[in-house]
Specification:
2 domains; about 25% helix; three-stranded mixed β-sheet; alpha/beta; single chain; 8 helices; about 250 residues; globular; Spore Coat Polysaccharide Biosynthesis Protein SpsA, Chain A
C-alpha cells in the first residue's frame, strides 16, 4: 500500500466560509485513491465537517497589509508543523474534477512541483512566458523545506518590498527544486474555461477535456461562476456554468 499523503489548505477571514473547505475535502475524497489526511490551517474551525483536521494557522511575522494575502502560505515551510510526508497544497477555491494520485508520484519527492503561472495572451506577444509559479497547487515535503522559511526570515523586508504577487517570491525561493505540473492538469477558469470577450457574453464556460483541477484565481469564485457572474466590466462576465455544480459539491 502506498504511504499516506496529506492534502493541506489554508482558511482565514470571511470570504471563504466552511463550505469551501467541506466541498474541497469531499471532492478530494472522490478523486484521490491512496490513503490521505485532509488538514486545514484556519482561524475558525466552525462548520468544518468530520474528516477535516483543523489546526491554528502557523504564525508568521507579516505586516497587516500582507497578513491576508498569499504571503501567509510561507508559514507552511516551517519545520514544526503537524504534517508528515508528501503534502499537496490546494487553494480553497479549487474545483477538483479528475484523478489526483499522479500529483504525488510526479517528478522526484524532493522537488517542489507548482503551476506555471498563466499570463494573458496580450502579455505574451513580444516575450516568452515568465518563469513564475502559481501557488494555487504545489507539493512539498512536510517539515523538510525549511530553506524557504529561513530565506524569508533573512530577507523579509526586501522580499515584501520587491515581489508582487507573493507567489513570485515563493518561486524565487524554490527555483532550484521547482518543476511545473503538466499544463493540462490544472487549468484556469479565466484563461481556459471562459470564452474571450465578447464571446463570454454568448457562450457558456467549458470544462477542458483533460483538466484535473480548475483554479478560480480572483473573481468569480466557483459558486459565482456556477450561477453566472456579472461584473461591471463586460469582459469579466460569464454565463452560468452548470458543470461546476456537478464537481463542486
Amino acid at each position: 500500500m502506498s504511504d499516506p499523503v496529506t492534502i493541506v489548505t489554508l482558511k482565514w477571514g470571511a470570504r471563504y466560509g466552511p463550505e469551501f473547505a467541506n466541498k474541497l475535502r469531499r471532492s478530494v475524497g472522490r478523486h484521490l485513491l491512496r490513503p490521505h489526511r485532509f488538514v486545514c490551517f484556519t482561524d475558525s474551525a466552525d462548520g468544518l465537517e468530520r474528516g477535516i483536521e483543523a489546526f491554528p494557522i502557523p504564525s508568521i511575522d507579516l505586516p497587516p497589509a500582507a497578513i491576508s494575502s498569499g504571503w501567509r502560505k510561507l508559514c507552511l515551510f516551517r519545520d514544526d508543523l503537524p504534517l508528515r510526508g508528501l503534502c499537496l497544497f490546494l487553494d480553497l477555491d479549487l474545483l477538483v474534477c479528475g484523478a489526483l494520485d499522479d500529483f504525488f508520484t510526479f517528478s522526484q519527492p524532493e522537488t517542489v512541483p507548482i503551476i506555471h503561472n498563466w499570463v494573458p495572451w496580450r502579455k505574451r506577444l513580444l516575450r516568452p512566458d515568465p518563469q513564475i509559479g502559481n501557488s494555487s497547487v504545489f507539493r512539498f515535503q512536510a517539515n523538510r523545506c525549511r530553506f524557504v522559511w529561513d530565506q524569508f526570515q533573512r530577507e523579509r523586508e526586501w522580499a515584501l518590498a520587491n515581489f508582487r504577487p507573493p507567489q513570485s517570491y515563493l518561486t524565487h525561493c524554490i527555483r532550484p527544486r521547482m518543476v511545473y505540473w503538466p499544463d493540462e492538469w490544472v487549468r484556469s477558469f479565466k484563461r481556459h474555461c471562459m470564452h474571450p470577450f465578447p464571446l463570454n457574453l454568448l457562450l457558456k464556460p467549458r470544462l477542458p477535456a483533460r483538466a484535473r483541477m480548475v483554479a478560480f484565481h480572483g473573481r468569480p469564485d466557483p459558486d459565482e461562476a456556477a450561477q453566472g457572474y456579472r461584473d461591471a466590466k463586460l469582459r469579466h462576465r460569464c454565463l452560468p456554468a452548470p458543470w461546476i455544480t456537478e464537481h463542486w459539491r
